[in-house]
């Protein structure tokens, strides 16, 4: 009788009698480096990402800035250790003519932002502004070239303008515009979403066009630093990757992109903050799809590039909801649901470090799954920001393979998802970091970590009372990381109590 009562109590408390999730970490099998560029970001001329987000103008007296770029944003992104920043789009990239954004600001022509609301932009934020800002951030720039409505010469000239030392027409124009030293930009995107807003091309047509463009993307410094990224597949379009890998010679390409957003339905994405259990489930399902996507796109790449010299670059990812009434294009709040997306997606990227070597969260400020939201002079950090900061200990560390058994499942109707996600790495200094996520909306869960690593164990947690919780301008610190003590270490076994919808990072030093 006593035993029955105990079993009932365990079932009621949501913990199965027999199953306890185990995460086995092979500390001796580290092989691949987690490229810091997996923590990259994306800034498009869209809504208030660039104008009002990063850039408020040199004459702005109310918001502290350096050369028009917000000081608070720079500080926050430096803390985040942003390694690489993609610009100027997105769909915008294939309408952007870089020459409109150089020279005296008063003389720059205006353009219509045709993809994102048709508003007029004055081009006051251009190439110099972006590249100088990247220097201030300590981030590598990733320039997305205009292939859809541009010319080979236009993109080749842009490369010459930013990378050639002196004596060439474009280098001399740059010097005339006030910048003596070239910026030596390494990462170049050859168009964006060429299957869609970039020109509605077939993969065969684009592969040929890519070859033409890639031929003229000269490394002016002869440093071997040019990194050309082909516009990649949309989610499940494996044929796109197959054709690019088949038709583009390996020595003409350094990266193939992939885009995948966590969207419930493209024509009914749901509210950013007012979502139910089923919508949460659907968002998590889409986020977890990233595992299958990178596995399958990587397998295609393996056929043509078995030595894994070409990188898979997920240069747009994140949650996408309906824009709240009255907000600028693609603005959305950021809740604990977004923290879950960030935690599980970064774990997936870590675990695929052998092929995924760059990723760019869409987008940095005031657009989609932003890490920063601004309202005039106010700025807040989102739960996604906090996850990325907690996780950045993995940058350039050696990935340790993880194996999860006796999984806890998040069930919704007849469907279920693995609720626990994990990744681990060891730094050059010998510290081990383990990231754990429990996406279950109700169940706390006990995890047994098996790892042969000695040292002092500490932890950080991001959690909240409700999945729909977020940071607001009125309550900016509603969700912040706190010290985590819900673990016990005995020899090579660590028992961790993971609250429902929480992200934990453990450090062994
Ligand atoms: O990130 C918003 C948009 O999503 C980008 O402009 C485009 O590349 C994608 O479809």
Can you put this structure into words, describing what you see?
- Helices cover 25% and strands 26% of the residues.
- It is α/β, with parallel strands linked by helices and 509 residues long.
- It has two domains: 2-29 and 401-508, Immunoglobulin-like; 36-152 and 184-205 and 228-396, TIM Barrel (Alpha-Beta Barrel), CATH 3.20.20.80.
- The strands form seven sheets. The protein has an eight-stranded parallel β-barrel with strand order 2-5-8-9-10-11-12-13, surrounded by five helices. Strands 16-20-21-27-23-24 form a six-stranded antiparallel β-sheet, covered by helices on one side.
- A hairpin with a 7-residue loop joins strand 6 (111-112) and strand 7 (120-121).
- The model is unreliable at 1-18 (pLDDT under 50).
- Alpha-L-arabinofuranose is lined by residues 44, 89-91, 192-193, 316, 362-363, 368.
In short:
Helices cover 25% and strands 26% of the residues. It is α/β, with parallel strands linked by helices.
């Amino acid at each position: 009788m006593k035993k029955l009562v105990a079993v009932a109590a365990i079932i009621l408390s949501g913990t199965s009698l027999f199953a306890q999730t185990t995460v086995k970490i092979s500390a001796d099998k580290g092989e691949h480096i987690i490229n810091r560029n997996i923590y990259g970001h994306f800034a498009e001329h869209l809504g208030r990402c660039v104008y009002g987000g990063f850039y408020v103008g040199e004459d702005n007296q109310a918001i502290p800035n350096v050369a028009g770029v917000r000081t608070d944003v720079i500080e926050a992104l430096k803390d985040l250790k942003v390694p690489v920043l993609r610009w100027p789009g997105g769909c915008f990239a294939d309408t952007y003519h870089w020459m409109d954004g150089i020279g005296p600001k008063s003389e720059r022509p205006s353009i219509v932002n045709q993809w994102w609301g048709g508003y007029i932009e004055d081009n006051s934020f251009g190439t110099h502004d972006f590249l100088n800002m990247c220097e201030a951030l300590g981030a590598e720039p990733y320039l997305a070239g205009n292939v859809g409505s541009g010319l080979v010469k236009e993109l080749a000239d842009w490369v010459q303008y930013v990378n050639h030392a002196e004596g060439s027409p474009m280098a001399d124009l740059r010097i005339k515009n006030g910048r003596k030293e070239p910026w030596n930009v390494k990462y170049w995107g050859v168009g964006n979403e060429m299957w869609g807003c970039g020109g509605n091309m077939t993969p065969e047509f684009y592969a040929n066009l890519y070859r033409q463009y890639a031929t003229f993307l000269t490394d002016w410094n002869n440093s071997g630093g040019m990194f050309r990224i082909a516009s990649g597949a949309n989610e499940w379009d494996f044929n796109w990757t197959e054709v690019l890998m088949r038709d583009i010679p390996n020595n003409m390409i350094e990266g193939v992109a992939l885009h995948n957003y966590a969207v419930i339905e493209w024509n009914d994405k749901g509210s950013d903050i007012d979502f139910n259990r089923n919508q949460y489930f659907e968002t998590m399902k889409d986020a977890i799809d990233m595992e299958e996507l990178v596995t399958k796109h990587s397998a295609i790449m393996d056929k043509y590039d078995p030595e894994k010299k070409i990188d898979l670059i997920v240069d747009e990812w994140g949650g996408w909801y309906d824009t709240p009434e009255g907000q600028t294009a693609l603005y959305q709040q950021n809740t604990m649901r977004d923290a879950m997306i960030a935690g599980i997606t970064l774990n997936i990227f870590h675990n695929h470090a052998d092929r995924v070597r760059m990723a760019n969260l869409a987008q940095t400020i005031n657009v989609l799954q932003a890490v920063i939201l601004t309202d005039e002079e106010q700025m807040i950090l989102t739960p996604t920001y906090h996850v990325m900061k907690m996780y950045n200990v993995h940058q350039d560390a050696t990935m340790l393979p993880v194996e999860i058994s006796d999984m806890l499942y998040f069930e919704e109707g007849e469907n279920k998802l693995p609720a626990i996600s994990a990744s681990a790495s060891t730094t050059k200094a010998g510290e081990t970091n383990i990231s754990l996520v429990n996406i279950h909306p109700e169940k706390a869960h006990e995890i047994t970590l098996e790892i042969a690593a000695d040292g002092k164990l500490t932890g950080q947690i991001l959690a909240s009372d409700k999945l729909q919780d977020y940071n607001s301008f009125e309550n900016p610190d509603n969700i912040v990381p706190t010290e985590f003590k819900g673990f016990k270490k005995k020899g090579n076994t660590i028992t961790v109590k993971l609250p429902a919808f929480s992200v934990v990072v453990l450090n062994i030093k």
